[in-house]
């Protein structure tokens, strides 16, 4: 199967889709792809997603991980994957704010060839002094993200899902 067949499909009308009712349309994609699109999971998880302080991050990541476990109990792979994505996004966004006080990585607009990409890819980014509070929030989310990502049942369900649906 070509690699692009496994890509997240951004062409679907996610505003009007309930992927719990049409799970065959879900694609894992890479990293956090689709995290803010997939319903009803976005509505179920997003209200708990916060990282302003380590205390808030600890409570948030614990709640999202609890949702991961609840989805696991129900055999709901999409829910598990979405919770994992929110945990990963907690880490990456807290890291961004740890590195850049405003959350902006660039001095000016994002270059056209870099739009939609995340992380540092050798681009000119704003200089920064690390914010230790956001860095700790990032570490908290990263720990819970790893717990979800390395969960053996999650790994098995992910492999099965990708073999079945691409």
From TrEMBL:
This is DUF4385 domain-containing protein. It comes from the Bacteria. InterPro entries: DUF4385 (IPR025494). Residues 112-135 have a biased composition (Basic and acidic residues). Residues 98-135 are annotated as: Disordered. Pfam families: DUF4385 (PF14328). It comes from Spirosoma endophyticum.
